[in-house]
Design a protein that fits this description.
Structural class: alpha+beta
Distance between the termini: 110 Å
Strand content: 5-15%
Shape: globular
Order of helices and strands: HEHEEHEEHHHHHHHEEEHHEHHHHHHH
Length: 555
C-alpha cells in the first residue's frame, strides 16, 4: 500500500495548501476554525518578536489601578471630559500627571490604555469640590510623595486631595450610586417681581444685559462678514504675490507653501483690523452704574419656606424630559430619581445674602439641575403659577428657563454598593474612609476656590440680575408644539440684520473697495479700511438697535 506523508514530512507550501483546503471544507459545513493562541501574533508592537516597542523612557515604578479624589474650579474650562480643540479639566489633569511621571510616554494622550474612567461629567464653567477619576497610574516607589508631586504641576484652581487603590473591576461611572450637587443662589432672585422692578439694580442689569447681547450679536455679525470676505475676495492671490519675495529666497516644499498661505490669510492685518474697527463702532461703551442696592435685601422666612416647598416637587422618580435637551417623554432615560432637593443654608458674603441649595440624586442629565432651579425661581418670584408643575412632568413640551451655570458645582460622589462590598475584604479602603480623612481639605478648597469666587463674580457682574431681565418677556411655562428650543437672541438679531438690503449694499461696496486696494501699501490700506468699515459699523449699530426695539428690549 502507498505510504501517506505526515504533516511533519510536508513542505511549507504543501502545509499552507492543506490548511486552505481544510478552511474551505469547514466554511461549506458552516464551522469555524479553532483559535490557536500559540501561533497567533500580537496586533501591536513589534510584529516579528511580539515585544513592546521601546520609548526611551524609564518607568518610575509599578503601575497600579487607583482612584484620584480631586477638586477644581471650572471657570475657563469647557467642562470635564476631554474634547479636542478646547480646554478641558481632564486634558489639564492628564498633562500634569504625565509631567509628574504617573503616565509613561507610550500611554500619553491614550486614556483607553490606562482604563481611565470619570464619575460625573460636569458642563462648561461648572466646578467640583470632590470629583473622582480612576486609572492605571504609576505613583512611584514613594507613594506618600505622589500627591505633593502632582499638586506642584496642577494650576491653583485644581487640587488633588488623595489617592488609594481600588479593585480591578472598579469603574468610576458605573459604581457611583448617586451624586450630590450644590447651587449658590443670591436671595434677591426670590424677591417678588413687582418689588424687584423698583430697584436700581433692575434698570442697571437691563442695561448690562442689552450691552452684552449687542456685543454677542456684533461678534457674530463680524465673524460672518469676515468669513464672507475671505471666501469671496481675490485678496488671497494678491497677498501671495506681495509675499513672494519672502518665500522665494528659500527652497520649500508644497506643504510648507500651503501652510504659509494659510498663515497669511488668518493673520493678515486687514482682516484683524477690519474686525476690531467694526466691533468698536457697533458696541460702544455701556456702563453698569450703581449696583449696590441689593445690600439691604434679606429673604423672609415665608419666602424661604415657599422655595423649599417648590423644590420638594422634584423629589422621587419623575420624567424630566422638559428639563434637558434631546430627550422625549417616551425615552426611559428621561426618568430620574431625586432623593434630596432643599435649601440647607443662608449665608452672607460682602453684605450680600446667598442661599445654598443641595441636590442629591441618582444621576442627572445635561442642564437638568439648572432648568429645575430656573423654573422654581420664576414661580417663587410670581412670574409663573405653581400649576406649571402639573404639566412639566407630563408628555407636554414646555419652555423651561435655564439658571446661570455660575452657581452650580459638584459636591460629592457616593459609592454605597462598592463600599459595602469592599468592607468585607482585608486591606481595602472604601470611599467613606478615604473622604473622612480629607474632609478638612475638601471644605477649605470648596470655600476658598469655589464658593468665594462664585459670590465675588456675582457681586461684580450681577449675572443673576441680568438673567432675570433676559427671562422677563420670554414665553416660559407655555406649551410648545415641537421639540425645538428657543433660539438665542443674538443669533436671531444677526440673521435679521444680515438680511437687510442696506447692509448687503454696504458690504458689497466694502468688498469692491478692498479688491481695488494695493496690499503692499499697508498705511494707505489701514486708512481706507477704517473709513469704509466705520460707515458699515454705524449702519450695523443702528440696525441692531432697531431689532432690539422690535423685540421689546430697548432701554
Amino acid at each position: 500500500c502507498p505510504i501517506v506523508p505526515t504533516m511533519a514530512d510536508k513542505q511549507p507550501e504543501e502545509k499552507k495548501a492543506d490548511a486552505l483546503k481544510i478552511d474551505g471544507k469547514m466554511e461549506k459545513q458552516g464551522k469555524k476554525r479553532k483559535y490557536n493562541a500559540k501561533n497567533s501574533k500580537k496586533k501591536w508592537g513589534d510584529q516579528s518578536s511580539g515585544k513592546r516597542p521601546k520609548t526611551g523612557v524609564k518607568r518610575l515604578g509599578k503601575k497600579l489601578y487607583i482612584a484620584l479624589l480631586f477638586g477644581y474650579n471650572g471657570k475657563g474650562y469647557q467642562g470635564l471630559q476631554i474634547n479636542p480643540g478646547v480646554r478641558t479639566i481632564e486634558e489639564e489633569l492628564e498633562e500634569c500627571l504625565f509631567r509628574a511621571g504617573a503616565i509613561d510616554e507610550f500611554n500619553h494622550k491614550r486614556l483607553n490604555k490606562i482604563a481611565w474612567t470619570r464619575c460625573a461629567r460636569t458642563d462648561k464653567g461648572v466646578s467640583a469640590a470632590c470629583q473622582v477619576v480612576a486609572a492605571k497610574l504609576i505613583p512611584g516607589k514613594d507613594e506618600s510623595q505622589f500627591v505633593e508631586r502632582v499638586n506642584k504641576e496642577l494650576p491653583k484652581q485644581m487640587q488633588l486631595f488623595r489617592f488609594f487603590r481600588v479593585t480591578r473591576c472598579f469603574n468610576a461611572k458605573n459604581h457611583c450610586t448617586s451624586r450630590t450637587y450644590t447651587y449658590i443662589l443670591p436671595t434677591y432672585c426670590l424677591e417678588p417681581e413687582g418689588d424687584f422692578k423698583r430697584r436700581k439694580l433692575a434698570m442697571h442689569s437691563a442695561k448690562l444685559w442689552v450691552a452684552q447681547m449687542k456685543e454677542r450679536a456684533a461678534a457674530e455679525i463680524v465673524s460672518e462678514i469676515l468669513k464672507l470676505l475671505k471666501k469671496n475676495l481675490s485678496i488671497v492671490e494678491e497677498l501671495e504675490t506681495s509675499n513672494k519675495s519672502k518665500t522665494t529666497s528659500e527652497p520649500m516644499e508644497k506643504e510648507n507653501a500651503s501652510n504659509i498661505k494659510k498663515e497669511i490669510i488668518n493673520d493678515h492685518k486687514i482682516f484683524s483690523f477690519l474686525g476690531d474697527t467694526l466691533k468698536e463702532t457697533i458696541i460702544g461703551k455701556e456702563k453698569a452704574g450703581d449696583l449696590t442696592d441689593t445690600v439691604d435685601f434679606r429673604i423672609s422666612e415665608a419666602q424661604r419656606l415657599k422655595m423649599k416647598d417648590l423644590l420638594s416637587k422634584y423629589l422621587g422618580t419623575k420624567n424630566h424630559h422638559n428639563f434637558t435637551k434631546g430627550r422625549k417623554f417616551t425615552d426611559a432615560s428621561a426618568n430620574r430619581y431625586i432623593m434630596k432637593f432643599e435649601p440647607v443654608e443662608i449665608f452672607e458674603s460682602e453684605n450680600r445674602e446667598f442661599m445654598r441649595i443641595e441636590i442629591h440624586g441618582q444621576s442627572f442629565m445635561i442642564h437638568q439641575i439648572r432648568k429645575m432651579i430656573g423654573l422654581a425661581i420664576l414661580v417663587a418670584r410670581g412670574q409663573l403659577s405653581e400649576d406649571v408643575y402639573t404639566i412639566a412632568f407630563t408628555d407636554s413640551c414646555i419652555h423651561v428657563p435655564k439658571a446661570p451655570a455660575l452657581g452650580l458645582f459638584l459636591d460629592r460622589c457616593h459609592f454605597r454598593i462598592y463600599n459595602r462590598k469592599v468592607k468585607t475584604q482585608q486591606n481595602r479602603l472604601d470611599f467613606e474612609e478615604a473622604t473622612s480623612s480629607i474632609e478638612g481639605k475638601i471644605k477649605s478648597f470648596r470655600s476658598s476656590e469655589i464658593i468665594k469666587p462664585i459670590c465675588e463674580t456675582e457681586i461684580k457682574d450681577c449675572e443673576f440680575a441680568r438673567w432675570i431681565y433676559a427671562n422677563h418677556r420670554l414665553p416660559w411655562g407655555q406649551v410648545r408644539e415641537d421639540s425645538k428650543q428657543l433660539l438665542n437672541l443674538s443669533t436671531r438679531i444677526m440673521s435679521a440684520v444680515l438680511k437687510l438690503e442696506d447692509i448687503k449694499r454696504l458690504l458689497k461696496d466694502l468688498e469692491n473697495r478692498i479688491q481695488a486696494m494695493n496690499i503692499s501699501d499697508q498705511v494707505k490700506v489701514d486708512k481706507q479700511v477704517k473709513e469704509e468699515t466705520q460707515a458699515l459699523g454705524v449702519a450695523l449699530s443702528q440696525s441692531i438697535d432697531e431689532e432690539f426695539k422690535k423685540q421689546g428690549l430697548a432701554i
